[in-house]
Design a protein that fits this description.
792 residues, alpha+beta, Cathepsin D, subunit A, domain 1, 11-stranded mixed sheet, 26 helices, 33 strands, redox-active center
Length: 792
């Protein structure tokens, strides 16, 4: 009978999975570039360089999940001499990064040893297919970056070739070169050549400068571009011009990080606006430009007056009003008369708050927004206590707004509040309480969602910093991709986003949610059979109640008035840290713990081997057993350690309840981790808006058994791998990364991701012997008893 405790090796979370494989990429042990070049020349192979650093999370993801896969190893070991360089520690790595054009990590470089020139490059972290396709492009002379560049420099400009070249440059992270090639291409085309169904998507994707030749042509011949036979073409043309105008206006700000002020460009842009078609884009750009000029001149009094006019006239849509308001409020702190300016700003805000004294929706919204402005000012000055007071007042009026407005709650708060306190206040049904029934898949909750009337399944993950969707879903629903230029741990150099216009959770309708786009082949998506995850930008605005007995998750903006005792909840990178207590020798310690519904293991996780040892000495952990192998982490992928520990906690305090002998294991994360199985103990209520949580234990709650198996296995690409080994008997005969190849001499067939652990297969089939293969290819026949708990 299968046990309910999930394998320790499947200590997985967002986008993280897979055991290391011996059939993966075989990297050279040397860090000498000279020796690498010599070997590649002698073997007539190209060179593959993995540029990484110790702190780089996506680099670790590649190393543990992608480089280890057999399909990757088959390609790279056959055609490349492979080497890894720590760009901060390895001498030859530090010397060559500039030559190779490494500007961010991870960067994967393909080099011709004959010339020592870069012939291809991949930036970021993708899956195995992404890496293999990148390698195959390098192996195909027609797709090699250096060959494409040579053809381009020789004057080749056929559209199909240019698209191939732009794609290769984009994969290499050479964004400046992409823009240069696109600009030259577009600038060389006539009106008849530009105003076509083939070229408009390229203009829309790459051209964002209203002063460029192309967008000037669009402005001057707008009817021609309106008439291109594409869906929603008129709206797309207007949106492209509006976005370009507003973005350019933002260049001329007081913050040097947002752009360089050039007087000639400023004058040209003013002339452009004079000739532009009347519309919201022109108005917004002009307003931003005017406010920026006043701020730059230090005329904060006139700047405040201009902002007052903007507020009265409601110039900006919700998604831009927040950034406008927040930015220029903080600009008050940059003028010479900083104290006077801030005091004037705060005084104005207080006047607006006093003026909005009614008990109606408009007054609530005005007061909420003005308190948000005060919070931004105090934050800019580093006055955290005052900022928190302003935020608390803002939250009070936001809650009143939700309770009374329903579908009138305005998204203007989004982006105004420091730290994103008011994310998503514009959802039309925010005042409703919704209870979702979840499915229990591989130890975690999966819920139904609807997008454009189509049903999908999403993991409900409190430790996902943002909602995520698969690229397949994005393409199916025709959502717009957005290249942000931002980074996110575990997701490569630049995060690609998409906006979900309407996301339905039960009867709750959420509008305009941003989501990070991940591959449909993401290991977690495949393992769970889901198309995305519900993350912090949805979860964190609600009071969330999780009842494991009834398999329900409730989202509400109201707190149960019967709850009187609360514990502290803080956010760490937008994920919940709960204040809990642990019992030691004669004393109780307060510690923070991550509450992770996306973690399906059957044990509490502890940060490190060292932390486990310290807690053992302090009497917090007992019944300790040592092992070695792989563990999963919340933020860094699979990690190989010299030691693994598992044991039981003396006592874990959750609210008034104390649970003794709680299973705990080396966890590899920054905090104590409460996996989703912790909800078996009682109902958790997470009051995100007010920074607190409540735990109500089930009357008959009891600590689960934990895991005593000496050998942990898991399927990886159809192969059964040993992930971790515990105890002296098993450690004498087995080791992590070995492959289980046969039971009683019968070869194992392809193993599914949810295949049972080796001990369950032995019992079910009455197996006597198990054949394993070590990392050097040697095979051994081991008695089945070694794999069973009785041999510990």
């Amino acid at each position: 009978m299968r046990r309910s405790v999930v394998l320790i090796v499947l200590f997985w979370a967002m986008g993280l999975n897979a055991l290391a494989q011996t059939q993966g990429i075989m990297f050279e042990p040397t860090r000498s570039w000279k020796k690498i070049v010599e070997k590649a020349r002698s073997e007539n192979k190209l060179i593959f360089v993995d540029c990484y650093a110790d702190w780089c999370g996506p680099c670790k993801q590649l190393a543990s999940q992608v480089f280890t896969q057999k399909e990757v190893g088959d390609v790279f070991n056959s055609h490349f001499v492979n080497v890894q360089f720590n760009v901060e520690k390895d001498a030859d790595g530090k010397v060559n990064v500039a030559k190779w054009g490494v500007a961010s990590l991870p960067t994967l470089v393909f080099i011709d040893p004959k010339t020592e020139q870069v012939i291809g490059k991949l930036v970021g972290a993708g899956d195995a297919a992404w890496l293999v396709n990148g390698a195959k492009a390098v192996l195909d002379p027609a797709k090699r970056l250096d060959v494409l560049a040579t053809r381009y420099n020789a004057g080749e400009r056929e559209p199909a070739f240019l698209l191939e070249f732009i794609k290769a440059l984009g994969s290499a992270g050479m964004n400046a070169e992409v823009q240069q090639v696109v600009k030259e291409w577009l600038d060389g085309l006539s009106l008849d050549q530009l105003a076509t169904p083939r070229m408009w998507p390229i203009i829309m994707q790459f051209e964002n400068d209203p002063l460029s030749k192309t967008l000037l042509m669009v402005r001057d011949h707008i009817d021609r571009f309106y008439s291109i036979p594409l869906e929603n073409q008129r709206a797309m043309v207007d949106a492209t011009l509006m976005g370009a105008m507003v973005q350019t206006a933002m260049e001329f700000s007081t913050n040097p990080n947002l752009g360089i002020y050039e007087q000639d460009r400023f004058n040209a842009f003013v002339d452009y606006l004079d000739q532009a078609k009347e519309g919201p884009g022109k108005t917004m750009a002009a307003v931003w430009l005017n406010t920026s000029q006043l701020a730059r001149q230090g005329d904060w009094k006139q700047m405040l007056e201009a902002m007052r006019e903007v507020e009265r006239e409601n110039v900006f849509p919700p998604q831009l009003y927040g950034p406008y308001f927040s930015f220029f409020m903080q600009a008050l702190t940059q003028v010479k008369e900083q104290k006077a300016a801030v005091e004037a700003g705060l005084k104005w805000l207080d006047e607006l708050i006093m003026a909005a004294s009614g008990e109606d929706v408009v007054s609530y919204q005005t007061r909420a927004m003005m308190y948000a402005g005060k919070a931004a000012l105090w934050q800019a000055l580093g006055k955290s206590a005052e900022m928190k007071k302003a935020q608390k007042e803002m939250e009070k009026y936001v809650n009143l707004l939700k309770a009374n407005a329903g579908n009138h709650v305005n998204e203007q708060m989004s982006g105004v509040v420091p730290g994103g306190v008011s994310q998503g206040l514009g959802d039309s049904q925010a005042s409703r309480e919704i209870t979702l029934n979840y499915e229990f898949r591989q130890g975690v909750p999966v819920v139904k969602v609807e997008i454009n009337g189509h049903t999908y399944y999403f993991l409900f993950d409190t430790c996902a910093g943002i909602t995520c969707v698969s690229d397949k879903l994005v393409n199916t629903e025709k959502l717009a991709y957005q290249q942000t230029g931002n980074t996110m741990q575990g997701m490569g150099d630049q995060v690609v986003m998409a906006e979900i216009p309407v996301l339905s959770l039960g009867g709750l309708v959420l509008k305009g949610r941003q989501a990070a786009v991940m591959s449909e082949h993401n290991p977690v998506f495949k393992h769970l059979g889901v198309d995305g995850t519900i993350g912090a930008n949805v979860i964190n605005e609600f009071v969330v109640t999780i009842d494991a007995r009834n398999k329900t998750i409730t989202l509400s903006d109201r707190v149960d008035p019967s709850i009187s005792r609360w514990e502290t909840l803080k956010l760490w990178n937008n994920v919940p840290l709960l204040s809990v207590k642990v019992q030691g020798k004669g004393e109780v310690h307060d510690v923070p713990a991550l509450f992770d519904t996306g973690n399906g293991t059957g044990a509490i996780g502890l940060p490190s081997v060292e932390g486990f040892e310290q807690w053992t000495q302090a009497g917090i952990i007992g019944d300790v057993e040592e092992g070695n192998g792989f563990i999963g982490t919340m933020v860094g992928g699979m990690v190989k350690t010299d030691k693994l520990y598992r044991g039981r906690m003396t006592g874990l305090h959750l609210g008034d309840a104390v649970f003794k002998k709680m299973p705990i294991i080396t966890g590899g994360i920054g905090y104590l981790l409460l996996c989703f199985k912790t909800t078996d103990l009682g109902v958790f209520t997470l009051d995100y808006p007010n920074g607190r949580y409540h735990f109500e234990p089930y009357v008959d709650a009891s600590v689960w058994e934990g895991d005593s198996r000496p050998v942990m296995t898991g399927s990886d690409n159809g192969v059964l791998k040993i992930a971790a080994v515990w105890g002296k008997e098993a450690s004498k005969r087995l080791a992590p990364r070995w492959t289980v190849i046969a039971l009683d001499g019968k070869p194992l067939e392809s193993m599914a991701l949810d295949s049972p652990n080796i001990d369950e297969m032995i019992r079910e089939r009455g197996v006597k012997t198990v054949t394993v293969r070590d990392t050097e290819g040697k095979e051994y026949e081991v008695k089945a008893e070694v794999f069973l708990p009785s041999m510990r």
